[in-house]
Amino acid sequence: MNYCPNCGTRLVYNIVDGHNVKTCSECNYIDWDNWVNVSCVTVAYTNNNEIIMVRLKENNKITFPGGYRELGETLEQGATREFYEETGMTVKEVKLYRAYTKDEIRLVWIVFKGKVDEIKFTDNSEVSEIILVKNPSDVDVRDFRGPLTIDVFNSLFE
Ligand SMILES: [Zn+2]
Fold first, then answer.
1. Could you tell me if 52 and 1 lie in one domain?
2. What is the Cα–Cα distance from 116 to 48, expressed in whole angstroms?
3. Same domain flag for 67 and 142
4. How many structural domains comprise the chain?
5. C-alpha–C-alpha distance, residues 44 and 82, integer Å
């Protein structure tokens, strides 16, 4: 960024703690150049102890419901909204489970656990079907979207 988000002053480079970073001479704001996009993902359980996964229309891959948090939302609100958009179900008792960083694409994945009382599926632009998983053998990890999905999935059955 070129201007201070606090006060609008043009940022200038300075050495801070050995890092060459942009700083604000007016309010001492520092741009640490560590921005990331935040994705909120939810592992939701049914009353039958099944995990709810989704198949993406985009690539036919399987993952957990989730997506990018919008500015102004809490992480839980982002997770709940994305879950609803991709399934039509309201997830409750959303609690922080894990977090991942993937710097090469400036992504932070915040993973929650939650519960769903009633199984249903509302067709939407992103997801073709929901998949209920009780045992690891119910799905093929080769169909998973990527390493983060695989890691979260495996952690659930440790
Ligand atoms: Zn400033």
1. no
2. 10
3. yes
4. 2
5. 12
Rounded distance from Cα 12 to ligand 1 centre (Å): 11
The CATH number assigned to the domain holding 116 equals 3.90.79.10
- Domain enclosing residue 20, as ranges: 1-33
Kindly list the averaged pLDDT for each block of 10 residues, start to end, along the chain of length 158. 96 96 97 96 98 98 98 98 98 98 97 97 97 97 96 96
Query: What is the structure's pLDDT at 103?
Result: 96
Quote the ligand 1 centre to 51 CA distance (angstroms).
46
Give the Å distance between the CA of 142 and the centre of ligand 1. 49
- pTM equals 0.92
What pLDDT score does 29 carry?
A: 97
Please return the burial class of 98, using the count of CB atoms within 10 Å of its CB with bins 0-12, 13-18 and 19+. middle
Protein residues with C-beta less than 5 angstroms from the ion ligand 1: 4, 6-7, 9, 24, 26-27, 29
CA of 7 to the centre of ligand 1 (A): 4
Same domain, 13 and 90: no
Distance from Cα 30 to the centre of ligand 1, integer Å = 8
